[in-house]
Amino acid sequence: MAVDLDVVNLFVIAGGTLAIPILAFVASFFLWPSALIKVYYWYWRRTLGLQVRHAECGGYRFCYSYRGKPGTRPSILMLHDFSAHKDTWLTVVKYLPKHLHILCVDMPGHEGTTRTNAEDYSIQGQVRRIHQFVETIRLNRKPFHLVGTSMGGNVAGVYAACYPSDICYITLICPAGIRYPSETKFDNHLQDLEHSQYSLGNPLIPSTPEDMEDMLRLCSHVRFKIPQQILQGLVDVRLPHNDFYHEVFMEIVGENSRYALQEHLHLITAPLQVIWGTRDQVVDVSGAAVLAEALTGPCRVDVLENCGHSVVMERPRRTAKLIMEFIISQGTSGSTKKHS
């Protein structure tokens, strides 16, 4: 009987021990979903071996994560999209070889990088700040591989045009910054915003769970089933920064930034890869042909069927595989186009 009681006590203690983290998780899920999201990113950074660091220069602080050390392959610097952060790339980093030196930086004003003024948020302003980051950590001791998506793709392309000696090759994923032959659903939203003098709600700056769900539908062809509590958490994380996002948005759609990539294409000399989803509703896939035709150097185009604007979220494994194929393929030249 004493043994049975010991067993019962053991289960009670074990159950109590397990109950604490379970109750904490349930409480976080329902009461503090934004905290749960931050823990999620922290967990995945640790799991993937990424470390967070800060680099300071002249009172300006950059926040970035990295994995690995410079080696025989070029380092890879990844630039995220509008209103996102460095952890956007976690899904892709998961499928990249661990021996590669990878850096994911928070773009100017985003997440842990210093927030200053509109001067830094135009495409040229962001390019200058990213170059400052590169110089500060001495990443350009050897030419590196620059990867950017959406707004980050616009910045990456202009960076490659302005600082060609820094770059060995470039990957642009659904980049903004060019004149697209075909309009998208977001183009219609943008026209409505302009006609209302930006008094209407911006579909890329959600302020309610319903807005967040609409933004995910706009940006992703794949329909993710996300619980209401997580949608609320995503909004809670973003809401304090919405004024900043609006300021950045006004800069990147302004006349000096909207077509910045296209205006710099003739200056890009490094081999370039374009990855685009055929169902992109934000920037049309027809932009891939514009890039391929305008570039004077080698260009590889990878078009992903049944994929929307959020390529790194919808097709992370395929994206990582295509980036690696592009890296390995260097040494051959010419323009190629593939459907995946």
- The total count of strands amounts to 9
Distance between the termini: 66 Å
Unreliable sequence segments: 1-31, 332-336
Question: Structural class of the secondary elements?
Answer: alpha/beta
The helix tally amounts to: 13
Largest sheet: 9 strands, mixed
Strand content bin: 15-25%
Helix-strand string: HHEEEHEHEHEHHHHHEHEHHE
Strand order of the largest sheet: 1-2-4-3-5-6-7-8-9
Average of per-residue pLDDT values: 89
Rg is 22 Å
Question: Would you summarize the structure shown here?
Answer:
By secondary structure, this protein is α/β, with parallel strands linked by helices. The chain has helices spanning 2-31, 33-48, 90-93, 123-136, 151-162, 185-195, 209-219, 228-238, 242-252, 260-264, 287-294, 311-314, 316-329; strands at 51-57, 60-67, 76-79, 102-105, 144-149, 167-173, 272-277, 299-304, 336-339. The chain is globular and about 45 Å long.
Give an overview of the whole structure.
The chain is built from 13 helices and 9 strands. The chain has 340 residues and is an alpha/beta fold. The model is unreliable at 1-31 and 332-336 (pLDDT under 50).
Write out key terms for the chains shown.
340 residues; alpha/beta; disordered N terminus
Secondary-structure blueprint:
Elements lengths: L1 H30 L1 H16 L2 E7 L2 E8 L8 E4 L10 H4 L8 E4 L17 H14 L7 E6 L1 H12 L4 E7 L11 H11 L13 H11 L8 H11 L3 H11 L7 H5 L7 E6 L9 H8 L4 E6 L6 H4 L1 H14 L6 E4 L1
Parallel strand pairs: 3-4, 3-5, 5-6, 6-7, 7-8, 8-9
Antiparallel strand pairs: 1-2, 2-4
Helix pairs in contact: 1-2, 2-8, 4-5, 7-8
